[in-house]
Amino acid sequence: MISNHQTNLNKFLQTLNQGAVLDWSKKLIKEYPQAEIYLVGGAVRDALLDIKDNKDFDFVVRGVSMKNLEIFLGKLGWVEKLGRNFGVLKFKPKNFAKDKNYEPLDIALPRTEFSFNTGGYKDFKVKFDKNLDIKEDLLRRDFTINAIAVKLNMLRSGRRGSGTSPSKLEILEIFDPFGGLDDIKNKTIRAVGNPQERFKEDYSRILRAIRLVCQLNFNLETKTLNALKKLAKNLNDKNTAGEWITPRETIAKEILRAFYYNPIRTFDLCDELGIFKVLMPETLKMKKCPQPKNFHSEGDVFEHTKLALSKINSQQFRRFEKKLEDILEIRNQKLEIRSKIELIMAIIFHDLGKPYTIETPEKNGTDRIRFYEHDNVGADLAKKICERLTFSAPETYGISPDNVYWLVRKHMMLIHGHPSEFRPTTIEKYFFSADFPGVNLIKLAYLDSLATIPKTGKLEMNLVGALIKRIKTMQKMVKQKKAKASLPKALQNGDEIMKLLKTKPGKEIGVLKEKLREAQLLGKIKDKKQARKYLVTSDK
What we know:
By secondary structure, this protein is an alpha+beta fold. The chain has four domains: 3-186, Beta Polymerase, domain 2 (2-Layer Sandwich), CATH 3.30.460; 190-279, Orthogonal Bundle (Hydrophobic Seed Protein), CATH 1.10.110; 298-475, Hypothetical protein af1432 (Orthogonal Bundle); 494-539, no CATH class. The protein contains 26 helices and eleven strands.
C-alpha cells in the first residue's frame, strides 16, 4: 500500500477509536471471539483520501449469525428491523439514539446478490451467509474504490491471554481484490468486473459514477465510460406498472451532489455522456441558438451558459461573493449548500427560454436578434424540470423549485430598469427579506455579466455595482446585524392607518401603507409623529 494512504487510514482508525463508532465492535469481539469485523465501502475510500467528516459507516461481520447479531445489538441500542431480510442492520447506540447528527451504522453479514437485470436498485435477490468469504461480498459492489475492506483486529490493554477487556482496534489486513488502491492512486473510477453488468444491475450507478468523478476529481476508466454512455438512456426506463426503475429522488440526489462538488465538470459530463439528452433535453436547445454578437461575442446560448457556470469558482467571483455576503448575511452551513445549488441550477437555466422565444431580422423583421419574455418562459421551463426530477427531495442537497423559478424570472431585473430607479420597497422586499433568494439574484446577475462579452471585450458591471450601492445606502438604516440584516420596522401598520383615518379596509389603505414605507426608507419620515402627519396630509 502507498505509505501516505496507509498513514491516512491509521489516522482515521485512531479517530474512530477515540469516538463511539467502534464501541459496539469491541463488545461484540468479547462476546463472540470468533467474529471478524470489516470496515468497507465509502468510509475506507474517504479515509484513504483523507476526506474528513464522513458519517456513513458500513461494516461487515463474519462468524456471527444474523439472529445473534440482531439480539446483541438490540441490547446496546436502537436497531432498524427493516434491513434484516437483506442481511443488513441499521444501528444506533443508546447514547446516540436521539442524536440527529449521529448517522446510523450499517452492520451487515457478508452477502451475494443475484440481479434480475432490470436496472432497479431493489430488483435483486440477496443471500447472506455468516461464513461467506469477504472477497465474495466485495464482488457485488459498484466501483473498485468502493470494494476495499479493512479487517479490524482487537488490541487488549494487558498482555496476551491476561483476560483483560479489548481496548482498541487496529488494522489487521486490507482486502483489495479488484485493484481499488491502484485506482485511488491513479484517480480512476472503474466498475467492478464487467461495467455493463454492473450498470444493468442498478442504473443509478451511472449517476453515482459521475458524482464520484466530480466529488473526488477522478477520471472515468475507458470501458466504464463507454458502458455509461451506452446505458444512460435507461435512466428513463419504467417497469410494467409504469413506475420509474431509477427513482427520481435518487437521480436528484446524485445530480445535485455532483453539481455542488464541481459545477462545470458535471455540466460537461452531462453533455458528453448524454445525461442532458435523457433527463433535461430542454437544455440542448440552447446549442446553436445564436445571440447578437455585439453583446455576446462568447458564442451561442449554450456557450454563454457554460461560461457563466465556469465563473462560479473563479477568484474574481469568490472575492465578489465574500464582499456581498459580508454586507447582507451571516452564512449558515446547511442553507449555504442549498443556496449554492440553487444558484448553480439558476445559472444553467437562466437563458433556457431563449431558444423558445428567439426572433431574428430575417424571420421576424426585428432590428436584431431578440428574446422577448425569455425570462418568464425560461422560469416556467426551469420549474418543470426541477419538479419533474424531484429536485426538492434530497435531504441535504434538495433545492426549492420556486426559488430557481424566481431567480430565472428575475435575472433580467437590472436590464429592465436601472437600480437607481428601483423603489425602496422593492429593494427591501428582494434583498432584506428571507422570503426571496435576493443574494443569489445579485450573484446570478454578476455571473451573467462575467459571461456576457461584448465585441469590445469590456465587461459591463456597472448595473451590479449600482444595485449594491442602493443596498448599501439602505444598509445604513440597519442598527444591528442579525442572521439576516433587518431594516427598521414600519412606523404604521394597516390597522393603525385605518384607526387614524377612521376608514374601512380597502385598496387605498395598501397604497397609503406602501407610500409611507417608501418615505420612511428614503429617510423623509423618521418617527410615528411624522408618519401620522404624512398620512393625514396624504388623505386630504
